[in-house]
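Team,

Forwarding the record for the chain on the shared tracking sheet. I've put the sequence and predicted structure together so nobody has to dig through attachments.
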Amino acid sequence: MTMLAAGGDVSTLATPEFWVLVAFLLFMGLLLYYGVPRIVGKMLDDRADAIRKNLDDARKMREDAQALLNDYQRKAAEAEAEAQKIVDQAKREGEALRVEAERKAVEAVARRVKLAEEKIARAERQAVSEVRGAAVDTAISAARRLLTEKASGETGQRLIDQSISDLRSKLN
């Protein structure tokens, strides 16, 4: 009733809007009394801190992943360079082996040619020696026949023996 004395109207108290306003103000008063805005603010701050922490963690994880990627790329480039070095070294060694094999083959052919030439020279010397021996034997036989026919007796025999020994020493 004091409201009526203050110049309020009874009809204003009966409207639903008035009671909604009163309920809203009481609700807001209760919320303020129990510190709900502070609790909600703290919850929002905690949530913002959690989101900030998650963002920081995500940023750190991204940086770590980028560093890891860079490290793997560097290692891959090093491995590629090392593989290229190995391939180049293998090519050089292969070429050196080929050159060495060619050199050894040429040396082997040269040795075989030299051995063949030596065999041929020995065969020539042996053939010449055999021809000389045959010539000596033929000359001795011819000399013996001639001397036997021309020289007779003891003098002839002595001349034949001396000639044969002289002939052998001169031909050999």
